[in-house]
Amino acid sequence: MNDSSSPRPADRRITGVLLAGGQGSRMGGVDKGLVELAGQPMAAHALARLAPQVDELIVNANQNLAAWEAFGHPVFGDDIGGFAGPLAGLHAALVRARHPLVVTAPCDSPFLPADLVERLAAALHANDAQLAVAKTFDQPHPVFCLCRRDLAAHLGAFLAGGGRKIDRWYGSLKVVEVGFDDEEAAFRNINTRDELAEAAKDLPAGAA
Questions:
Q1: Cα dist. 184→12, 35, 66, 141, 148 in Å?
Q2: Tell me: the pLDDT tens digits for 95-129?
Q3: Would you give the DSSP letter of residue 93?
């Protein structure tokens, strides 16, 4: 968890959420985060990078719950059935988070930036925004976002109305996009077996 020598004040503490609720269809229907990468489950690499940046860490997963619980963090499923996508995971996290800010990262991004949370939080507070989203050049990365826990009801209403697209939801909020052009490679995600093999070349065995 947050290992900074100057802990955050209570109103700025952050719950980190690993999004692992998908079906992994492009990986052959397997639970992507549990697929081995450099001698560890892929999610272990993402968790190792995210954990030092947050004050609490929880995991959104909808299958193989015992395997996810083995990582040692609280695990919860979507409150909306049918694998409704990352927004359903975010909503379930906002309802359960202990801290006023919630940051998300997907389980298939083992290279996520070590300064992700710091930069998102700085932009969120500087702009008095409701949500900060990472962006590299012209590409936003909405599953890498920091938002306020009090958006839970707003997001719940959006989902109840059939909304599923992240960018459509945050289009109605005060959003700041945070440039990570200097770390573009950190946002690569692993969707296929070929991409998994390619990523393994960039991680030493047992790196997590």
A1: 27, 23, 33, 11, 25
A2: 999 999 999 999 999 999 999 999 999 999 999 99
A3: H
